[in-house]
Design goal:
binds pantoate, alpha/beta, Pantoate--beta-alanine Ligase, Chain: A,domain 2, six-stranded parallel beta sheet, Rossmann fold, three-stranded antiparallel beta sheet
Amino acid sequence: MDVIRTKAALRARVAQWQAAGEAVALTPTMGAVHEGHLSLVRLGLERADRCVATIFVNPRQFGPNEDFTTYPRDEEGDLAKFRSAGCDAVYIPDPGQMYGTDYKTEVTVTDISDVMEGASRPGFFTGVATVVSKLLIQSLPDIAIFGEKDFQQLAVIRTMARDLDLPTEILGAPTVREADGLALSSRNAYLTPREREIAPSLHRAMIAAAESVRTGAAPHVAAEQAKRDVLAAGFQQVAYIDIRSQDTFAPAEALSENLRIFAAATLGSCRLIDNIAV
Ligand code: PAF
């Protein structure tokens, strides 16, 4: 497995594989690799001949009071996990490869970036769209894979790639969960043992809300009940629990096709997000 630290070397390696007729998948991550990330690599290797993972904790997608400095970092451990999953290369850009001292350009996807995560975390989706567009342009892969756990992020990236005419197909991969339903996330490492016991109640409340919409409850009523359930279980704050169209993100008024329930809530120092289909 190659470890690549410059954009020139990354572009050359991917182009070399493509020139030999091999399709290349890219799986961008911020490291702190878990089974969810490795499922993206495995999907990449099913759909393409080569898979390149990236590790870059992107400062532009963290707000001033967020966890950029404390975000878990473990380069050696991450490399071992990517190697065991069969990755062909890992791109770990040196500082300066992504944002030089005179860096000035941002990528913003309007409209779908404005609700839920975008409303709760101003600037987050601009940071994501900017770094992902740079990673795609630096590598020009055939496909790039992102987890559906960050469903709104996946939609923002798909829209960005389409609108900027990037020659890469964007694929979503299903959320990987612990046995008790908790969606895997690098930030789960922040949970204390007691909080870890409480955490799956978010997923349980979402399942109950989805079920009540399917059996006739109004979406906003089901979502309000889910918020009460999550707070009663011990979460300190609910940023949102919304039932929306998974295509347009318009709020749902009644049961229809393609609805999803989206949630973000705080437990101790950990902000958990999740989504499931209704
Ligand atoms: O989902 C993530 O880990 C990040 O937002 C991403 C897509 C790697 C961009 O930094």
